[in-house]
Amino acid sequence: MAAAKNSPPLNAVTPLRRTTANRFFALIYASALLALFYRHVRQIALLRSTTPASVVAATLSLLVADATLAFMWCTTQSSRMYPTRRTEYVENIPKVLKEADFPALDVFICTADPYKEPPIRVVNTALSVMAYEYPANKLSVYLSDDGGSQLTLFAFMEAAKFASHWLPFCRENKVMERSPEDYFRPNQGIGAEAESIKGILSDPIVGRMQVMYEGMKVKIENVVAKGEVGEEFIAGDKERQALSQWTDTFTRQSHPPVIQVLVDNSQDRDIAGNLMPNLIYVSRGKSRAVHHQFKAGALNALVRVSTVMTNAPIFLTLDCDMRSNDPGTLRRVLCYFADPNIDQSKLSHIQFPQIFQGLNRDDIYAGSYKSLFHMNPPGMKNGPNYLGTGCFFHRRALFGGPTAYVAPEIPELSIDHVVERPIQSQETMELVHRVAGFGYENMTNWGSKVGFRYGSVVEDYYTGYLLHCEGWKSIFCTPDRPAFLGDAPTSLIDMLNQCKRWIVGLLEVVFSRYSVMTYGLRSMGLLMSLSYAQIAFWATWSIPLVVYSFVPQLALINGLPVFPKVSEPWFLLYTFLFLGAYSQDLVYFLLSGSDATLRRWWNDQRIWLIRGLTCYLFGSLEFTLKRLGISTSGFEVTSKAANDEQSKKYEQGVFDFGAPSPMVVPLSVAVLVNLVALARGLALAPGLAIESFALQVLLSGFGVVNGWPLYEAMFFRSDKGKLPTNITLASTFVAALLYAAASLA
């Protein structure tokens, strides 16, 4: 597969110009942190047995908060020491590699709930990758339906029929957006591209294709709305027999594996007479008595099934809503997988950034996750982590380290297995049903040394982390045209629940035998372990955010100064530390992409504050209860569906606090305490307020400005997005208790 050594270049790596400036700033900022802790030591040395308890508590809590902030700042800097930008020369691929020599590719798409992940969206994802500009006989698409739903199976039966028309249409019209939903969306595109599409859509052939797609979409959505596939939707005995395997739809929890070859590239052709890529539906076997390991288990089932059926050396993992946006992506990936100057024996994966459609203008819920998906990965020394979707793997990477191959339990699952039988042969189908069964992994290395790793609900982070610990390297690929486009949660509560689940999974890694600060440090070195720690320790952000949301404000209400006076030199230190950290984050954010704006950055930092007082805090609590053996909520799929009213609020940039959740209580208490503290500070004598309480007044004001959407939801709104009255009352009561407790201390 690799090109010759003297072939034209396929890619280039360029260090970013900001590197030197960032290192210089980091040196200055680190010196300021040392000065800060020197002051903390002095403050603690002044404490006496007669010192009021409130002063002792404030002093120690601020020390812990600052220590946590300093640690997290260090972890962030680890990915800003060696930032790079990669460029691919796709035009050189034909010069170094014949199409007949292209490697085969398998695509894995996972879905789990036809109501939270509408099947029509999953269908669009599958169609977009089936339409890749790549030899059809080398491309296979596998769908994992972990919900075991006949609704999803029916949708993909319809997709297989539509694909025979859609694939040649895309080729003939040189379509770039090969998800039909994206292609036919009104007013999509910008500038000249939009005008070109507008002209194409006036073509009667395009019109017929759109009518065909809308007909399929309506049929699928009607079936989902009814909750079953009625006889009027079934075309023939073959479909009836396949659908009969699901007698009680997706609610069924115990069942043998269901595997359907919907398109076979050895025999099925489109309307133009060309072979089509394989399309294979897989619902692995499940039993109530066997833990199914969530998405990691589903992916491992796909790894085994695909190894038996096609065994492509490279596979792509995609979330069900992450559609291809560039049909040439596979050739771009070959710029690395076929590069003789890259040690292929150590390259585990190529990760593309997650980019989302449907975000409102100012991204009020920070759904783009700029830090996680754009700002940090280019600077990770050994390459980016696995981000869960949009990632191309060497299959070999899932079978032990670069120099320590772990053989699977049967030869048919080996990376060297040669596929000789047709994918629908009786022998093949019997074997794939066996390896997809719920008891197959018992007494094997799957999930521990082989495949995607078990032990955390954030299987993407955990798997990528352990791959790097084993010695693998990875590459971050950021083309100008996004390779994939997905859907981010457009509901505040969905975003918080998703993030809470991540926190639980990350803490599972932190407190495991493979902790990033012990095992990771020994295996990868300081910089990479700190890069992984920046994500793993997200939960610890709740410590300084809780402290700085309450302690200085309660102290201000009670007339207790906790920060330096304006006339003291230490005042400048605190000012520099705050403005320096925020300014660096702002610069990196604005440099992260053309969609980065000042208002989006403001919302990004606001949501960071909100997460610290909600999902980070409650995720830590849920993890603690789980470790103590106390039952907590199970795994929940993040909803990709939104109702019309919710979508309208989101498009208008209006926060939706209507869903009752205990997570919002600490946040509501914090904004009330900050409001009272600001009022108290402004009521002080001007000279006293400026000299002794300036930083506390400014901090309270900062909290009030960030909390403005919540004040609106508490006091000024009457729509369904307002904060529930019981949460407002509970928050007011808790805030009053905090004030009373602080006054007595």
The structure class reads: alpha/beta
Question: What assembly state would you assign to the polypeptide chains in this entry?
Answer: single chain
Number of domains as seen in the coordinates: 2
State the end-to-end distance.
71 Å
State the low-pLDDT regions, or none: 189-199
Overall mean pLDDT:
91
Beta-strand percent range: 5-15%
CATH fold topology of the largest domain = Spore Coat Polysaccharide Biosynthesis Protein SpsA, Chain A
Helix content: 40-55%
Radius of gyration: 28 Å
- Which superfamily, in CATH terms, is the homologous superfamily of the largest domain? Spore Coat Polysaccharide Biosynthesis Protein SpsA, Chain A
Q: Strand order, biggest sheet?
A: 5-6-4-3-7-11-9-14
Total strand segments: 15
> Looking at the structure, what is the overall shape?
globular
How many helix segments? Answer: 27
Under CATH at level 1, the class of the largest domain stands as Alpha Beta
The biggest sheet amounts to: 8 strands, mixed
- CATH-level-2 architecture of the largest domain: Alpha-Beta Complex
